């Protein structure tokens, strides 16, 4: 007899108005017991409003919403909520934050002692109870915030963009914890701008303009797209992108990366013929074309474009400076060391970045990336080592040099109590733009940010993604020769992120040298070269494709009838970083020949049936985590 799944969350006709603004427009969905359900959508789609209604913080304007059969305000005792901002007190320690939340939730002292130890151990935070929250990295803060949300042992967990600003290693650990919680009967609803994370959900709903436009498992949504993704490598990536972008028939979407162009086509064979013919006609030499399955991000972008979403591309105004010589180094840093007391944050790092190159710095929180950028910008003095920027090795704080550099910091670089226009006029003055350039550059920022008509808004009232767009525009409006971008797309939705990267690519093709940090490894594929960092040291460097090709072993995807049990079984057999749960699918990295057979035998012994296994190419995230973990074990 088939038992119908129990429904923990039921939403019928949820509508929410803020005055004349209809933020959510009659959405319907159900979430099953023990399910991880994802809400994805662009900024302003209604995700946070939906979470606030589910959490009982806001009343719905209309609709029927029940959690565990009760209205949200009644069900709150059984609901944990992790908000978009860090929900911690920076001046309290780890233990004090947990005690505070436990007191609010009336958790008995005996239960608190057991639970706090269990959850801190689960999040790998044991032994740091006296450390202040402000001293934790972004990933550790989010894991502590999740501990606080779990301390009352809720039956439903609401997570609104819980991993924004968290490094890839911590994000994977975070999602492993969520998978274990779901297998232990916790129902989870999560919003995320990272669609590689959404792949780990059992089902996802695409929310746009306050309505649900698609709902299903990641595999179902990818299948609905009915497309293939061609990875095209060619002699001239910029020319290949322009050529394929102009093809009207046979190519659905084109996006360039650091060493390739992705073309979305209906059929792999027909699409490859169209691509080869177009590139041959454009005199672009093709190195290779590989057919791959589309990603959930492909689905997201294609669906939103069907709905007319997206910001029209606005080219940068006329460039006034002369491009640097080909082959010249914009950034030449040798043997950089930076110590804070006895702690060595950066240890013997050498970077050489040419004009027109996009160079990515990747690493876990605390790896030394931001410290390197601050030294290169002249904000920190190296303990030892040398730096030359734009051929100058003297005073890096000189105003003449600073006007040739753009910097977008990890924190928002805008003044919240100024309007968008006031911020942009301020930066135009700081960078010494002439009045003849200023108005055109400010107009470009407004247009490329999709904020025409909203110039008078205070930046404090902008959603995070919109703030990031304006901050990026402010950093590049003076057309710098060297551009430092420290996590510029953190919290930005995939469509806006694509716009960001088109603008970044344009700056690079105009001759700007770009050094960028990011925690989103899909976008790191845009870089010409990458550097992986761990503990302040460089542990790998090269083009994205070369780094992936250098990974030992093979990656397999397993489809089973009990994915959570399968993951728990294999984590006892292999190091946890080699086993990753993606919703109903399981990824396993085979290092030694026969690992896959050992895994299949172990699952069979545990009563888990493997319906299918297939080999996949390594992603950049797999390469990053594998490299960092092998370095830590060395």
Protein described:
By secondary structure, the chain is an alpha/beta fold. It folds into four domains: 7-218, 3-Layer(aba) Sandwich (Rossmann fold); 228-293, Alpha-Beta Plaits (2-Layer Sandwich), CATH 3.30.70; 329-547, P-loop containing nucleotide triphosphate hydrolases (Rossmann fold, 3-Layer(aba) Sandwich); 552-617, 2-Layer Sandwich (Alpha-Beta Plaits). It is 35% helix and 27% strand. It contains 22 helices and 26 strands. The strands form six sheets. Strands 5-6-7-3-8-9 form a six-stranded mixed beta sheet, sandwiched between helices. Strands 18-19-20-16-21-22 form a six-stranded mixed beta sheet, with helices on both faces. It has a four-stranded antiparallel beta sheet with strand order 11-12-10-13, covered by helices on one side. β24 and β25 (585-590) form a beta hairpin. α14 packs across α15, α14 (420-430) packs parallel to α16 and α15 (435-448) runs antiparallel to α16. It is globular. The model has no long low-confidence stretch (mean pLDDT 88).
CATH superfamily of the largest domain: P-loop containing nucleotide triphosphate hydrolases
Query: How many strand units?
Result: 26
Assign the CATH topology of the largest domain: Rossmann fold
* Major sheet size, sense and barrel closure: 6 strands, mixed
Number of helices: 22
CATH 2nd-level architecture of the largest domain: 3-Layer(aba) Sandwich
CATH class of the largest domain: Alpha Beta
Q: Work out the strand percent.
A: 25-35%
The low-confidence runs, each spanning 5 or more residues with pLDDT under 50, are: none
Structural class by SSE content: alpha/beta
Helix content: 25-40%
Give the rounded overall mean pLDDT.
88
